[in-house]
Amino acid sequence: MPVQSRIPKPQLTARGYQVVVVNYADTYRQDLAFKLAGVNTVISLISGSPQIALIDAAAQAGVRRFAPAEFEGPAAQRPQPDALDRGKREALERLRYYQTRGMQYTSFVCGILYERFGPGGMIASGIGLRSGIGAEGDYLLHISQRRARIPYGPNGQPGVICMTSAQDVGRFVAAALNLQQWPPELRMCGERMNVSHLVQIVEAVRGAPFEKAQYNAQSMESALQLARSAGEMQAQLRTISMIATANGRFDFASPNLNTMVAVVPKRFQTWLQEAWQGR
User: Fold this and answer.
1) 97 Cβ partners below 8 Å, 6+ apart?
2) The pTM of the whole model exceeds 0.85
3) Considering Cα of 93, then 94, then 99, then 101, what sign does the dihedral take?
4) Tens-digit pLDDT profile for residues 93-105
5) Are the C-beta atoms of 22 and 50 separated by less than 8 Å?
């Protein structure tokens, strides 16, 4: 499968991948469609207007299947308006339109990536570089500093999240390419747990207690208002993601892809031990 990128990727070319340099600006849309000619499936890792351009060009080129850059919780569980959207709603609306014209699509739902809890956070693995909340400590736990934030939901219980490692997401997606039909969502999960249990696992692996701060709806809203008044965008995104966790954005039942393909995902504790070994 060719890899499309805005810039050359010599590290991928050296590994045998075909890298096609593309431009997602409107004036290059015809060229983008030309470069997609003969492609059966597109897996998108971009968001916003570039992804819309990619979807339009894929439809024009006759691409059979398209997977947008989702890779989080189910779309139905997102609030409107959604501060974490980054163009996802528009992309799904566009794909529903093209589905009526014969192009299949699916959203790969994986919950939270384990890599959020690795050394340096997701960005250390080259993931979420433009999200604004990809560094270590941006989501719930700062493991190096032994600090944890535990959001509580409307039911008075810690928020629940589904999680999967990025490597296993890749394995699930690769296996899904062999499926004849794609439903609107393909859900995968390595492990599901509440945030309090998550913190307990991390404390056990690191061999030390963490400083814990508990948040309910009122204290999270106060923190959000404080961040807004100070103009601190990163603090806003951190708090919004914590509110989203409390409200079940990253929790889901029936991970259908787990039952459809022969992929056994890694457990979170095993992954965490490997990620922090020797540190």
Assistant:
1) none
2) yes
3) positive
4) 999 999 999 999 9
5) no
